[in-house]
Amino acid sequence: MKKIIEAEGAPRAVGPYSHAVRVENLVFTSGQVPIDPGTGKLVEGDFDAQVRRVMENLRTVLMASGTDFSGVVKATVFLDDLRNFGRFNKIYSEYFPHQPPARSAFQVAALPLGAMVEVEMIAFVA
User: Fold this and answer.
1) Are the C-beta atoms of residues 123 and 86 closer than 8 Å to each other?
2) Which of 47, 77, 100, 123 allows an S-S link to 105, with CB 3.0 to 4.6 Å?
3) Given this model, what pLDDT does residue 13 score?
């Protein structure tokens, strides 16, 4: 059975989608861009600030789904500029210091609201 996850404390969706969908013990998050949940606007700051906001938004969604970063098995990363790949990895590794999940990363032409980064995840609930 499919369960729709709407995470309190995560930014509201900017379109017709849910924060995540849980099917049995798997969680599929929607892509998170760096929206400040308090203001509903793109977070102020540089690329690093955007990455941290995205990861904190994902933490909130994962927790509302019954899991956390330790349950993530796959991440997909969208960057507006692959020259930021190293900076992304540095911050991302803080959230996955041991046994990081499988991951893909892509440069895209544009992201919603002019964001520099978007990340989606698949996780399991133990």
Assistant:
1) no
2) 77
3) 85
Q: Which CATH number fits domain 2-124: 3.40.190.10, 3.30.1330.40, 3.30.70.1140, 1.10.3720.10?
A: 3.30.1330.40
Q: Would you list the DSSP string of the chain?
A: -EEEE--TTSPPPSSS--SEEEETTEEEEPPB--B-TTTSSBPSS-HHHHHHHHHHHHHHHHHHTT--GGGEEEEEEEES-GGGHHHHHHHHHHH-SSSPPEEEEEE-S--GGG-SEEEEEEEE--
Q: Over the chain (126 residues), what is each successive 10-residue block's mean pLDDT?
A: 96 92 98 96 95 98 98 98 98 97 98 96 96
Which of 120, 50, 58 is CA-nearest to residue 81? Answer: 50
Rounded to two decimals, what is the model's pTM?
Answer: 0.96
What is the pLDDT, as a whole number, of residue 14?
78
CB 35 within 8 A of CB 53: yes
Closest CA relative to residue 48, chosen from 89, 9, 99, 100:
89
